[in-house]
Amino acid sequence: MNSANAQAKYPGRLSGQESLGKSIVKHGALYLMIVPGLLYFIIFKYLPMFGLVIAFEDYKPYKGIFGSEWVGFAHFERLFSEPMFLTILFNTLTLFFLNLIFCFPVPILLALMLNEVRQHRFKRVIQTLVYIPHFMSWVIIVSISFVLLSMDRGLINELLVAAGFDKVNFLMNPDWMRPTYILQIIWRESGWGTIIFLAAMASIDPEQYEAARLDGAGRFRQIWHITLPSIRSVIVVLLLLKIGDVLEVGFEHIFLLLNAMNREVGEVFDTYVYVAGLQQGQFSYSAAVGFFKSVVGLILVMAANWLSKKFGEEGIY
Fold first, then answer.
1. Residue 8: its pLDDT value, please?
2. What is the domain partition of the chain in residue ranges?
3. What are the pLDDT digits (tens) for 4-55?
4. DSSP assignment of 104-171, as one string?
5. At what angle do helices 177-202 and 232-243 cross, to 10 degrees?
6. Looking at domain 80-310, which CATH architecture does it have?
7. Is 281 in a helix, a strand, or coil?
């Protein structure tokens, strides 16, 4: 296909370097809006990648990156041979899959319910109420949970006693650590997660619903046959991005929930890196752990993206 035919078939596509320059001059303000985001990724995402080299060194701050001794894969060998490695990996994967199973669908369900509300004022009030927890830090969220779940005059335990049950030590019992973690995520993030799904639903042609109503379809059939298929691509993209964070379960949140009694079920890679890297000063080893997490996330995103394309979805690239 020659350039003339290509330009005719894809009129919006730039044909060469000159067209790009003209586009920048013509739409300079739009390109200028890209600069802050571009600088953010260059400064905070790409330039720090150079520091990954310390994962293959016995890094000493006073020697610097170029003066430290090269040790190859010694830190990775240590990581895989650590007695705690399988426990940490199991805990991290367990929390991730619990998050994926219980937390990921909630914003979709909440967005579907909000989309069915016809009173716009009431809908805005509900949206505001479910958005508010997102703007609270994990310190506040966990502190509120401590007040509610405390053995000493905690509201939940007071209600249990009033109902004739014994008090439950939610904070120190390892069996309650993971449910508490999941419930806190649902409370804090579900409302905020509805924004993208509501935006996707707003782009659905209303005539499809009109045609479905004429054919006798009720609300649930409209949701199943129109709404969900229309936002399927958005769900797939967000799911792919979620899979990329398979070993990222949130340091601050987990760290605030950990204590001596639940550490066995709550210790994850993020908290392990904090202890090894900052508290014990093992910078190279903690960099190796972080590098391992990044590689696993990249592999899973590429595999999930390939699988989604096999099923006819667009994917993320």
1. 47
2. 80-310
3. 454 444 444 444 445 777 887 888 888 889 899 999 999 988 888 888 899 9
4. SHHHHHHHHHHHT---HHHHHHHHHHHHGGGGS-HHHHHHHHHHHH-TTT-HHHHHHHHTTPPP--TT
5. 140
6. Orthogonal Bundle (1.10)
7. coil
